[in-house]
Amino acid sequence: MLVRVDHWALTTAVAFLTAAPVAGVSDAWVTARVKMSLMASPQVGGIPIDVDTNQGLVTLNGKVKTRVEKSAAERIAFNSSGVASVRNLLQVVPKRGRKSVHASDERIESLVADALRNEPALSSSGISVKSVNQGVVLLAGRAERFSDHLLAMELANAVPGTRRVASEVMGPNQYGDREVWGDAITNGGGGNRVTDAWITTKTKMSLMTDETVPASDINIDTHRGVVTLFGTVPSTAAKKRAHDIAREISGVRAVDDELRVVERIDRWFRSDRTVEAAVRRRLEDASIQGAKVEVDVKGRTARLTGSVVKPADSYTAVGIAYRTPGVEHVVNDIHIDMREAS
């Protein structure tokens, strides 16, 4: 695992759990940038790789053909903006166990063009195939939303025969609030299209605040409404509950459950007061602008109250508490007060 040392919140023994988030950079954006970098890479472009980010810790999941590809994916992710560390769960599956697909550039171009044209979510953007050269797809045009740009690259990357995806697409370089936090935005009016980033974030928040799922090592990625759960849970009951929670999220078409049940040996014998102090310290270190968050820990349940100015800040605070050693559950009573932003 590659680790960029930005801050140690507790001890070096749990660095991968406590790497500090990069200020001003959302997990959703980091995930998207890592995905784009992987798809554009000559080494691993064309390979479906799940990506999840939690407070700057990026987790990679999926299958590659060689150890060289596995190492390359890790390096590419680590060099992406906002990444504090990388956990590489990619499995090496030898080439003889996988089917190689060969297709002409003309065939690939036709399939990518059809995929872009037939995707309703891209109807308001003007993204097209500029060229295909030896399996390298070059996209051009303009994306109305950042999520449209990512989706177009994913559609091209999924076409059999694509080796990698390059992009000259113009458009926003950040998610708009409604792309990730749609149902939590109350001002400004207008509808909201459910994006993969929204589904992932909503699923994470639901899992982190569910009283029946103990703090677990669950990672989530979403592609065109299909949620992939990977990582570990402490029991079959937690595995089933995580699956059910994901399936209940609006916009989810299916759930690919790759969670493994690993009985947890609890090494964190800490008093509520000690855990509460750790959560409070990590929240202070995160420097969430305008946040007024209070913490109360009882029986390993951390209750968060107070206010933040953005839905993203509430998510950040919950994630920090959830991943603090000694916390089993999080109750989120934080309210959004956008007046504090002014």
TrEMBL record:
Coiled coil: none annotated. SMART domains: BON (SM00749). Residues 26-94, 104-173, 195-263, 271-338 form the BON domain. Pfam families: BON. This is BON domain-containing protein.
